[in-house]
Task: structure prediction
Amino acid sequence: MKPLETIHCNSLSELLTNLKAGDFNEDGWVFRGQCDSAWEPRHSFERAVFDTYAIPQQNAEKVEKAMIRQFQRQFPIYSYDIHEKSPDLDNQFEWLALLQHYGAPTRLMDWTYSAYVALFFATHGYNPRKLGYSGEDHTHGFSIYAIHTRSLDDITFRNIWPAELLKMREKDEGFRRPGYVNAQLNYNRDIPVPPCVVTISPFGFNKRISVQQGTFLATSSPSLRFSDAMSAVWAAKPNNKDYIRYYKKLICHFDASEFRKTLTELHRMNLTSEAIYPGIEGCAQTLLQRVARSEFFTYSELPGHPGT
Result:
């Protein structure tokens, strides 16, 4: 895959200035935050199936099919407790979205239309003393990836998708008919889709997707790694000079002080685990963020003070 445009930020103000400038003023950007800038974007299916369990990529389709079928069979056991309605059995994408929601590895990757939500996720698991800051040596940090989906989709529609799929798209004005949505993910054997990345969302949002302003980027086949699928998209337009303009990586090298400042600012924007993850799970996770901001300490209680 071609190298990204990489933007280095040493402070929160520098990051926010970059996010408010230039190309980011255009509509259509999606963002993904990661706590270690050394990590490339990878969907959970490739991490679990290809990397952890070393299952050959040619078997990925069988694995995904078996997972969906087993989940469909067991879903009635739990549907009453979680108040979740069962999708139609032939709506593979909706089942895949449910699997993603409940933590199973899938080829759906969580992205958000909000750079600030992505910043929230990037700070999760980030340790400024371990990863991001070592004197003057700024080698790592947390990162925010940005992709301009309108450009991504334009290349896919014009250069990759077969004519049959484009006809389905023209007939489906809301882009929500199961046949069209499932065909994008290669669930229609009569319309094989070459390697690419698609922007896709379930018709009915759950609370998390709504609160997080979320969407999915998915590979057109479970056998594809995300990086390979992205490479296929850009290779479809080899003279694309806008590649770097529309695929960016912002790396944040924040020391402990700047990191706490970032957490405080996110809190002021109500971007906390309690807001992002509705329910008691988010409430519990927010306690750690409050500790990180030293919110539970008064001055006299801080470590090292004579009164402690």
Notes: Strands lie at 5-9, 29-34, 108-112, 142-148, 197-200, 214-219, 247-252.
